[in-house]
Write a structure and sequence with these properties.
There is one protein chain. By secondary structure, this protein is α/β, with parallel strands linked by helices. The protein has three domains: about 80 residues, Winged helix-like DNA-binding domain superfamily/Winged helix DNA-binding domain (Arc Repressor Mutant, subunit A, Orthogonal Bundle); about 110 residues, D-Maltodextrin-Binding Protein, domain 2 (3-Layer(aba) Sandwich); about 100 residues, D-Maltodextrin-Binding Protein, domain 2 (3-Layer(aba) Sandwich), CATH 3.40.190. It is about 40% helix and about 20% strand. A hairpin with a 2-residue loop joins strand 1 and strand 2. Helix 1 packs across helix 2, helix 1 packs across helix 4 and helix 2 crosses helix 3. It holds the Pfam family HTH_1. Keywords: DNA-binding, Transcription, Transcription regulation. Belongs to the LysR transcriptional regulatory family. GO terms for molecular function: DNA binding; DNA-binding transcription factor activity.
Length: about 300
Amino acid sequence: MDWDDLRIFLGVARSESLSGAGRRLAMDASTVGRRIARLEAAVGAVLFVKTPQGYRLTAEGERLLPAAEAAELAAVAAAEAVGREAGITGQLRIGAPDGCANYLLPQVARDLCAAHPGLEVQIVALPRVVNLTRREADMAIAVSPPETGRLVVQRLSDYRLHLAAHEDYLARHGEVRRDDLRRHRVIGYIPDMIFDRELDYLSETGVETAAISSNSVSVQMQAIRAGAGIGIVHDFAIPFAPGVRRVLANQISLKRSFWLVRHADDRNSRRLTLLSEAVAALLRAEVQRLESLAAADAAA
């Protein structure tokens, strides 16, 4: 039994599909299937059962999983030892909600790759919590600290949000007053697709429903930028939306936090520890830089 077979086994166990494992491992699904069949022949046991929900581990597969994960950790440690003097290389996959993924992580990835030319950064933007147990990412950024799972959690940075609208909308509809918000077209989240209580912004404004809604922060911002209405936006996103202005900033101001989350099994990985420290420092600096630009624009 070689490490490459175990690597493919872990890919199927975490993605619960041959095609999903193939995408992550850069091979076609039929090859993944043949390699799993070869591994099952080598161990003399069926490791997966195909269900309507995907490929699930059998009891024999569950017994193999800890050994495969231990082999993975050993392989990572060996790669770190070999590459320590040459800078950090390989792949880093970061999962994040789409506001962070769109407006902050591209700059973080730019600076990481500049510092470590051999590093490949993947940004996974998901409208839900990233599942580190299934290894959807190497680390995740969350808007509230997870309460379950074998995870290591680190507070990253506070950030602020305000009501905002495009200057064209404001020119058409006049002054915005808090006691008159209901007469405005409000933009926000689809209520039953809010995956974290920290994203329930509108409840803090007194407005109960949104006329235009999306599960994506970026779509909401584009609607606001198009002059479609008023919505809660991240201050760090405002510099990317010319013409969008904060409104009622002295009356409605929200504060939230980003958290960096890693799987507990990775706490001894020097490579991931160094990368998590770099991500944390770069993200804090970028939040501060963009919020400063938004504040300067509001004061102008």
